[in-house]
Amino acid sequence: MIGTLYFLALLGSTLAWGRVDVWSEAATRNGTEDGGGCTCDAFLPSAVFPIKDLVLVEETAKEISHELDLEIGKLEEFEMKMTIYAEKIVKLTAKVTLIEKNPDDFSDADLEEIKVEIKQVEALIEELQISIKSSTTVFESLRVQITIMISTLDKLEKTYDKNLVLATRREYIEIQLQLEECEKRHQEIFNPNIDSTKGKMVVAKINEASFGIEEEWPTSVYKPGVSNAFMVCGVLYAVKTIDIHTEEIFYMFDTKTKKESYVNVPFERFQDKYSNLDYNPTDQKLYMYNDGYYVSYHLWFNQTAPAEVKLPAVQNENVQNVTENVM
């Protein structure tokens, strides 16, 4: 029994010393020779972002911007000089014309003065030519730098922008510009005293594919006097407020004939406020979104379309009657 315990104790001591030896060797291998320190190996990814390239692009952009500012300053300076000398050329032309007509009325001093002014203009022309050549060289250098910068940015984007973040941002900017243009166009059409409309309503046909304006029809009715409007088979109907409970269809404009007329069709609006009017040719009803209610009106027209014309069954030359349904 004692022999067995002694053997186990000796075995445990041997294993312990063996582990210490392995740890000591590892410490010596990964650290200092005396085993007092430990070093770690760091493995970096192979695709390291080239920040130097991006910094170089940024510095190039600043240099290009600075050089452009200098060239723009030169152009502004020469524009002022050209304006001044253009006036001188006009005066010189008038003097030369007078000399050709009446050469005896001018002395040699007058002729010398004209020669001096002509030489000044010639000097300006030579200066402009030299400046244009210099600017051409600068712009060519800028073009090369911009081409290299664009190539570098494209390479960085294709390599590191796997989620197409930059492409999405560019598309967003383009969409934002298109929306601003649409908003501006909307303001020109509907808001008073803007551009050529001068507050008058304009009917526009929208291309469904491109969402651009195909054709426009100006009207004589002023937008501030219109509370709402709706279209029926190419005819614009404008609505105005009579009192707190009554609206009136008072104006119509036919885009086919470009004729306009005034009508008098009052109807109740059910609530004090409403946001939209829309005519549905399928059921021949006028729908109103009215302060939480969905209101429909039956419309009857006093003339039907000819059979050969490809239009809905109801022609809208005049609204005859309106009845109301509340949904």
UniProtKB/TrEMBL annotation:
Keyword Heme: no
Residue ranges annotated for the Olfactomedin-like domain, each copy included: 1-303
Leader peptide range in chain numbering: 1-18
Gene Ontology terms: biological process: signal transduction
Cellular component, GO, one term: extracellular space
Intracellular or extracellular location(s): Secreted
Entries under PROSITE patterns matching the protein: OLF
Keywords tagged on the record: Secreted, Signal
InterPro entries referenced in this protein's UniProt entry, alphabetically: Olfac-like_dom (IPR003112), Olfactomedin-like_domain (IPR050605)
Broad class of where this protein is predominantly found: secreted
SMART domains cross-referenced by the UniProt entry: OLF
UniProt xrefs under Pfam families: OLF (PF02191)
UniProt protein name: Olfactomedin-like domain-containing protein
Species classification: Eukaryota, Metazoa, Chordata, Craniata, Vertebrata
